[in-house]
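queue> holo job accepted (magnesium ion)
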Amino acid sequence: MKRLALFANQGATSSRLVGVLLLTLLTLAITFVLPPVADSQLASGAAISIVVLGLSWLIGWSGQISLGNSGFMAVGAYATGIWAHHHASSPIIFTFVLAMAVGAFSGLIIAIPSTRLRGPYLAGMTLAFSAAIAPLAQNYTSITGGEGGLFFNTLTTPHWFLNLFSGQNATIDANAQWTADLAVVVAGVTFFFMANLFHSHTGRAMRLVRDNDVAAELVGVNLPRTRTLAFVVAAAFAGLGGSLYALINATVTPSTFPLTLSITLLTLMVLGGIGTLSGAVIGGIIYAFSSNLVGHINSLTGINPTSNLGANMQGIIFGILLILTMLFTPRGIAGLGPRFGRLVANRRRVAPLATGE
Amino acid sequence: MSQFLSSPIMHNIFAGLAQGVIYSLVALSLVIIWQSTHVLNFAQGAMAMFASYVGMTEIDRGLNYWLCLVLSIFVGLLFGGFTERVLIRPLYGKPEINAIVVTVGFLGVLEAVAQAVWTSTTRNIATPLSQIYFHNQGRLVLLSPFVIFQFALAIVIMLFVAGLFRFTDLGLQLRASALAPEVARLLGVRVNRMLTIGWMLSAAVGTVAATIVASGSFGLYPSDMDGILIAGFIAAVVGGLESPVGAVIGGLLIGLAEQFILSYWSADLAPLGGIILLVVVLMLRPQGLFTKSVSRRV
Amino acid sequence: MIRVEHLTVNYGAINALSDVSFEANPGRVTAVLGANGAGKSTLLRAISGLVAPKSGDIFLGERSILSMATENIARLGVAHVPEGRGVIHELTIEENLRLGAFASEVDVRAGLERQYELFPVLGDRRKKYCSTLSGGERQMLAMARALISDPKVLLLDEPSLGLAPQVTSELMNLILELCHANDLTVVLVEQNAKSALRISHDAVVLHLGTVVASGDADTIANDKNLRHYYLGLVQ
Ligand SMILES: Nc1ncnc2c1ncn2[C@@H]1O[C@H](COP(=O)(O)OP(=O)(O)OP(=O)(O)O)[C@@H](O)[C@H]1O
Ligand SMILES: [Mg+2]
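queue> job finished
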């Protein structure tokens, strides 16, 4: 019996591996077709999708909310920048591990007082944290570069990859695509990790805590520890995403991760679908190409993109979408699939849900 | 005496309190909503900003300052009512995350729209009251007619809110609706209306805070209230989220903390005053400074 | 005064009441009896509009109150003391009482004085918070709060819960007295069938959401089978 369960579990793990692998390979293939600008957008989208996934896990699976993930991103980004200054030639994987560790650590610091706080308290606390990053960065100029921030150029495209390209803009093309491919691979690894976390013992405990903390405590789940763990994982993901984001842009400043980014992250997660892998993928794609979308809407409606209105269209659209999604389809785009599938096949798919439709 | 009023300590205290009353008002407005609907409104600052901007626009057209203040408050009332009716009402009984997400979305919309309509530059309302600091026997005292008006206005509003909740029938119905909506309904209280009124009242109080900011020498810009909202939120938590008095005191403490950090440590780090205070309070009294630690019996 | 016709109430998949009909009239106490989960509270909650019935109708006098909002039903003179009494602990005794007066046009001050006369314990401690009251005193407060608005109908959900036998008996006497004095229509939900039947004129027995018996309280009290199977009253 036990062996059977183990076996079944392994089957699930490998099917998850196959799924994530296929998606990663498909995306990598797409990067070959996309022009450099779109590749760069895709790279940022992949970085953001990692953060969205962490947030999705936090909100969808543990039922806690954070408006401070842009702060954790900033922490990861600064760690990356500072590390790059001193160890520019170390393998990139060290940078990522460092960014995750620093993110996780700051998550822990916030979580310890916060996990005793519920819902709105927690949201406000994390908001306060993310607002504290910029003042700190501005003050400790010698470490953070102050207002001007840090510049670094650690993402060097290897020669073999460069050699794949020819023509006038070979270097630009190669650099843009290398960045995108790296981001996609990192995202693929994190998605695989999260897919397994969702279905692990911890994942189930998390959902129990979310749905009924009293019952969870009765069956021996340690509430503060479980909540803290959820937070730390989300913060580590945000740190990694922030690191990647900073590497892609080769800079980090106090204004790289504004409060509005936290709102954007929340929007992407809700739009994509809370607590699902596909939701985070969708969120990343929306982020990557939202400027195209907004440009399209501007040109459709004849709004001058450089006017005040045009420049703020994205904020307006995102905000409205966030509200409408929450009011009308709180499971987001990823939730539409199963709902449709259920209509067709009358088969119940269990989607984690913090939104109580 | 005059020497005392002009001492560095008093400079800091006056400046800290002037900033603190703004936080207090925002904190108070958050507590009103929290008490009546158990929603923490992240759009509170943005709503207040928006209402003040509407008032300011009329000043540009030549309307009198006092009338603009009244107009802003009125717009704030409408805004609060609208938000509760349209955005929040469908979410009662749903997980509290839903309301948080919706108010965060509303915050995004309001700031983007304000930037689109009025640009992101700072705007300032000219007050009829002088912003020039007093001198006492040749020494500077960090108080001006405007700052005194600001204190007076804040005190009047706080007393008004406290009196309303404590002594009036409306206040009693508001409190009952928040504490036990079902029982209140059974007693004939129009609970839905009370929730709307709670939001209206709260938005109006927030609007006063934003208008004070806009009237001050630094003016107001569309995302200006973000930081103020955070400070107000911290003030409300420090006070225990249930206690209007606690919220007010929390706001004043944060104003003072920021001012003292600014003077004696670093101007850049001043925004951390609230967080530092919060961490200290959470460690000492996690339920907040002013919450009676009686567990609620059901 | 209150007439319930073919009422069916579901909570999701759970059927709480099916095809329940009964009538309660002025100047009479109508007992609604039954075991835990029989649907007694649900019946009162449906009358007050706190749950939406699936089918059936509810009349106050000649008027259907089926789809009315709870607060409007209250304003028509239906006072409902819910299970657990519904005293708001964070308010003072006087504030709780004042709340009760909003349902009607009565003069608050006069109403308060009348209730303080009826329940002197409350008058002595009017400024105290309700968390300081004993269970019996809370029941007094809940009754006073319901009566202050001069209701026509009084719905009581297990008023004897947690009270000593002596206090229960006094409470029942009071209910009967008030019913006669004010020509009140009283619907008295009780598990404590014995004390309820002692003062009731009519009775309805619910079992798993259906009416198994209704009629004259004395007849029901003396029906051997009912006593044995549904009312838990054994000789
Ligand atoms: N809110 C609810 N959701 C789902 N089921 C409910 C709900 N309230 C009551 N029920 C169910 O409806 C049935 C009737 O409940 P009700 O509270 O009316 O019983 P009751 O006769 O008042 O019992 P008691 O004497 O224990 O108060 C029970 O099976 C109960 O479990
Ligand atoms: Mg009951």
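queue> Residues C 40-41, 83 surround magnesium ion (ligand 2) (CB under 6 Å).
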